[in-house]
Amino acid sequence: MSEIDALTLRGTQLLTGRDAPLAPSQGIAELSRASELGGADATAILAALAGMGVDAPPNWPRALELLALAAERGSEGARGQLRLLGGQPDAQDGWARLAQGIDIAAWTAPPVRRPICEAPRIRMLDGFVSPEVCAWLIGIGRARLTQAQVYDARTGGAAIDAARTNSAFELSIVDVDLVTVLARARIAAAANVPLGALEPPQLLHYAVGQTFGRHYDYLDVSQPGYAKDVAAHGQRVLTALIYLNDGYEGGETAFPRAGIEVRARTGDGVMFANVDRANAVDPMSLHAGEPPTSGEKWVFSQWIRDRAQGSGG
Q: 3-state SS of 101-112?
């Protein structure tokens, strides 16, 4: 293994706590060293971290500069991101010029929220992202899906539950690229919260017959595992979903107590509150992911806390 590869691996381990103690600052230092030595993959990861604001405020110019540098060094992932975000199939004028043309202000401007219900509060975000962004996000998750899990109410840890039969991929801090960071920044703008209030996102997949039964996304503090989690990280007050495809039948997001079933087009979003206007948990937010009867359903899922966690990851 080369020095660059070893530094990159060590950096990702320290950032995620996989096979090494969790040490974000040290992980960034290792990735920075790999980048200084010419590492393309390390540079692409640093681009996403700069956009997220890990260990520093979000720095979009720096994020784009690093992404262009990663592309120049041969990172196909960075090149694909720049082509997508820049709306160009190639980079005839150079990767840096393509990066400079990306409209960060458009991504981070608050989108229009169309009310469809007040109890619970549900807002549609029509045309939230492009079909091309949706296809990119599906590509991130397709080969990395595992059995979806739920929070265990006693321990606060993850557990398999018969009520949830779909598959999922939770993106760690080093799985999130700049396309994903910008999608999350758009969610944060829609919710009027800092990027650090967003939990790690998930890509969800529902095959025919797969479902996530009726449940709440808020954390019931009467349960010891949930109470510990809320004390450490805050209440999960909002849920945002981006619908990544629409070539399926069934598969609605159902709110049975409100008598509402949400269907959306590719690229539309929905955001709903898990608490009421007094910030008390809202039983009306009971919802379910209904099973598709044909095709497959893909969703980008983002939970939002009532306080920032110190970084965008």
A: CCCHHHHHCCCC
